[in-house]
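FW: tagging you since you asked about this chain on Friday. Here's the raw sequence from the shared folder, copied in full. Didn't touch anything.
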Amino acid sequence: MVKCSCSRFLFCVNAAIYPWFLVWVHFNSHSGLPAKLINGGIAGIVGVTCVFPIDLVKTRLQNQRQGQQIYKNMMDCLVKTVRSEGYFGMYRGAAVNLTLVTPEKAIKLAANDFFRQHLNKNEKGLTVFKEMLAGCGAGMCQVVITTPMEMLKIQLQDAGRLAAQQIKPASMSPTKLAATRVLSRSYNAGPSTATSALSATQIARELLRTQGIPGLYKGLWATLMRDVPFSMVYFPLFAHLNQLGQPSRDESAPFYWAFFSGCLAGSTAAVAVNPCDVVKTRLQSLNKGASEESYNGVVNCVSKIMRKEGPSAFLKGAGCRALVIAPLFGIAQVMYFIGIGEFILDLSPFN
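HL: got it, structure written out here
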């Protein structure tokens, strides 16, 4: 009942913010906001296409339990994935990301602008605290898209790990192996193994049929715990790093400096919130391997990971996550520097 009430509260908060946010978007369409949304969307699509295999590796490494390791490290995971699932196996779940990354980036960037503008009404500039507050608001708004996107993506990404666990009898006792072979997806009725070729659409339909909309928003609190601090770290850090590269107050930073600032701010924020990302991944994984723990919430998940795997488990996949996020935000800066959105809307030529 408490979880349900908390989720309803968050939806009410977002429902209260969005009408004003959409009105602001409408009346500010002349100020370059549509171009920013186009740039963010293109950056997201290009970035996801480039770094998605590393994101898949991150999910699989984070879901490994102690004593059941199939992958030794990032390179080992990539090699084994290509061998067992082929090249396109590295892109399991990419379609979900490519479909939803544009609205996610649009909401995040537009919401950050929205909050920055309202926190800077006196036009004296923003303090670090207000910059963090604007980032916090942007992070809260984006989870409306991010949570179901991550929920569906994780099921598809982790399927290969569970399949590999089934065909590795030497590393399991007969009891564990038998348990794995009869394992069924919690959202799929009847016997099913991790090798089932379920699509994101099928998973979404089954979740909606059995659990309703809350089924797609499992792990909402953990997603907020990750995305809100990430935005609070990234936006102010990028603004200040980028400012260091400006020749003068009226000139923009050079292209290479903006790229470097985006990469550094993104990777720093990614590693800082990696423990929350591990918790989110574990909570959103519906299908478990043999003898793998189930969790009843954020606190329960943190407690069990700490007790059974130790503090180092919260840093699983941190390197992969930094490698994913750094280019994503670096590419975003490339899009803004080139001005693709402005060119498409015929506002200015390519930079």
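FW: Confidence is low (pLDDT under 50) at residues 1-7, 13-27, 170-195.
HL: agreed, and The CA atoms of residues 53 and 90 lie 5 Å apart.
FW: great, closing this out.
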